[in-house]
Amino acid sequence: MSKKNLVITSITLTSIVLGLIISLGVLGPIPLTSIRPLGLFYALFMANRNITIEVFPLIVNPGNFWAASTEAITAILWDYRGLDTLFETSVFFFAIIGSIALFRFTEKEEHEIRKKTHENHASEGKYLGLSLITKTITKIILFTIIVVSAAIALHGQLTPGGGFQGGSAFAVAPLLAIAALSRFYLDDIGFKKNTMLLLRTMGLLIIALLAIIPVVAGIGSWQAYIMQNQPKEWAIIQLFPPKGLGVLLGSLVYYNIAELLAVGAGFTIIFILLSIPEEFYKKIIEKEGVEHG
Amino acid sequence: MDEVILRFLWIYTWFVLIATIGLGLYGIAVKPNMLKKIISLTILGDTANVFMIYVGYRAVYPIKPPVLWTMNPSKEVLENFASQITDPVPPALVITAIVINMAITILITFLAIQAYRLYGTLDSRKISKLRG
């Protein structure tokens, strides 16, 4: 039996065995009729804690688990396992830092790319981007995409959505702009690589600061919680007002805004880097090869 | 009868998801082209995410997202809420997995582009034979 057939056979056999095991009910009854106790725990403790005392009479001091968010997923993401999300955002940060390190270019080179591309297009009698109709419509759509992404992120603590989802929706805007209006349009409206890098770093710093503020403010007393959402009644220092402007606030809304900045700007950098013509990178690599021997 | 059909479809979907994961593994293990390996990796990651969401989903209607409409619910509202929502834990894990998956894909795509620029090939057999 050849190596390839061996791989195919082993993968097929494993799939069938795994499927049989699951259909016997290892992951729970099939189909599931009620949610698991852990999910129920999170879903109920995010709400009014006085009610949860009645539902879970065995749990000591249930107020400790109160997230005070109407949205269970955001409550889990930024409150129950907030530190995990913080480090996960750092992983995203370092992945983009790595990409920028591979695709580095200076301001001078960027200027050269711009000049050369304009010259090439002028000599061929073409304009940058698609037709005028497409360009105008794209500009209107760009505006609406950014508004929608902001709405998704700002309502993350009340409705489905949040910083990640908002940031991913936001990232569609630069991609569309590159396709319809050319990458130089992004420069003209201020979506430059370094500006985006600044915004992204700012977003991550805001998240880190928000996490640490309650702990720093609580030095001297033992009632501080890292990544605290709503002020706890028994804590001496109470931060992040629970209500304002007629909606529920807490700290989740600030986390979502910072995450929107971090994810949206991060993806924009990637699209800007990927849209640089290949020939310029070849030149840069050749130049570096000559310099370093 | 409906229950039997529902159960069959449920188990069938499990098999399809596991087979898709197997397909992703096959692509990563057998295909020599790096770009195809990356595509297989994204298939594997996305199927794992669907798998996770499927673990937390219920087949009993009505199904609602785990979002409360009031901050001070009565006990009846809360009990009703608990009997209708989907599990909030898997989506919270999946949203992290999606972002990490994206970050890893970006990094390895950039590495693959750089490898193509330097060596002129994406064939992992040829790249592994290069020295220096």
Q: How many beta-strand elements of chain A? A: 2
Instruction: Please report which band the strand proportion of chain B falls in: under 5%, 5-15%, 15-25%, 25-35%, 35-45% or over 45%.
Output: under 5%
User: Averaged pLDDT of chain B, please?
Assistant: 86
Number of alpha- plus pi-helical segments of chain B: 5
Describe the structure using short key phrases:
heterodimer; A: about 290 residues; two-stranded antiparallel sheet; 12 helices; about 65% helix; B: mainly alpha
What is the secondary structure topology, with strand pairs?
The complex is a heterodimer of chains A (293) and B (132).
Chain A: H1 3-23, H2 37-45, H3 49-55, H4 72-80, H5 82-102, H6 107-123, H7 132-154, H8 163-181, H9 183-188, H10 193-217, E1 243-244, E2 247-248, H11 252-274, H12 278-291
Antiparallel strand pairs in A: 1-2
Chain B: H1 2-30, H2 34-55, H3 75-84, H4 89-119, H5 124-129
Helix pairs in contact in B: 1-2, 2-4
Detailed description of the structure:
The complex is a heterodimer of chains A (293) and B (132). Chain A is built from twelve helices and two strands, in the order ααααααααααββαα. By secondary structure, chain A is mainly α. Chain A has a two-stranded antiparallel ribbon with strand order 1-2. In chain A, a hairpin with a 2-residue loop joins β1 and β2. The longest helix of chain A is centred in the last third of the chain and has 25 residues, at 193-217. Chain A starts with a helix and ends with a helix. The mean pLDDT of chain A is 79. Chain B has 132 residues and is mainly α. Chain B has helices at residues 2-30, 34-55, 75-84, 89-119, 124-129. The chains are: A mainly alpha (293), B mainly alpha (132). At the A-B interface, α1, α2, α3, α4 and α5 of A face α1, α3 and α4 of B.
